[in-house]
Write a structure and sequence with these properties.
This protein is of the alpha+beta class. It has a domain of 78 residues: 2-Layer Sandwich (S16 Ribosomal Protein, Chain: A). It has a 5-stranded mixed β-sheet. The longest helix is centred in the C-terminal third of the chain and has 23 residues. The protein is elongated and about 110 Å long. It starts with a strand and ends with a helix.
Length: 153
């Protein structure tokens, strides 16, 4: 029989309260358990003494019988000094997923293309002076008006 020291949820909706129990690993989370070893109230502040209560003597007894704590309970036991928890290192946790990496590569390629495009494009032709551009339509309008007045006479 595989024994686990784990959390069993109690409390009402949106008001969680957990019992720390030793149970057969095959039983459901909130199902039958062998013994209650403590409580955990996540709604209390982190520095409150009543947040996590453990029966250290009984926990030691069940650990000697081969019960394995879950990760969350292992953290509680480490904080209480009952059982040391080894440090973990997951270097891949901070890396973006496959889709995010593909998006970053596409953005980098687009930025590189944008940098190369202005260097390859020919220099634009100098713009015509503004005075000449404005004078040309005015001259055409004056000629058209002169033609209409001459035809009317």
């Amino acid at each position: 029989m595989a024994l686990k020291i784990r959390l069993a949820r109690g409390g009402s909706k949106k008001r969680p309260y957990f019992r720390i129990v030793v149970a057969d690993a095959r039983n459901p989370r909130d199902g039958r358990f062998i013994e209650r070893l403590g409580t955990y109230d996540p709604l209390l502040p982190r520095d409150a003494t009543e947040r996590v209560r453990l029966d250290a003597e009984r926990i030691q007894h069940w650990l000697s019988k081969g019960a394995l704590p879950t990760d969350r309970v292992h953290r509680f036991l480490d904080a209480a000094g009952i059982m040391a928890r080894p440090a973990r290192n997951n270097p891949n946790k901070g890396k973006p997923g496959k889709k995010a990496q593909a998006r970053l590569e596409a953005q980098a390629a687009a930025a590189e293309a944008a940098k190369q495009a202005p260097a390859e494009a020919p220099a634009p032709a100098p713009a015509q002076p503004v005075e000449e551009v404005e004078a040309a339509p005015a001259a055409e309008a004056a000629e058209a008006e002169a033609d209409t007045t001459a035809a009317a006479e």
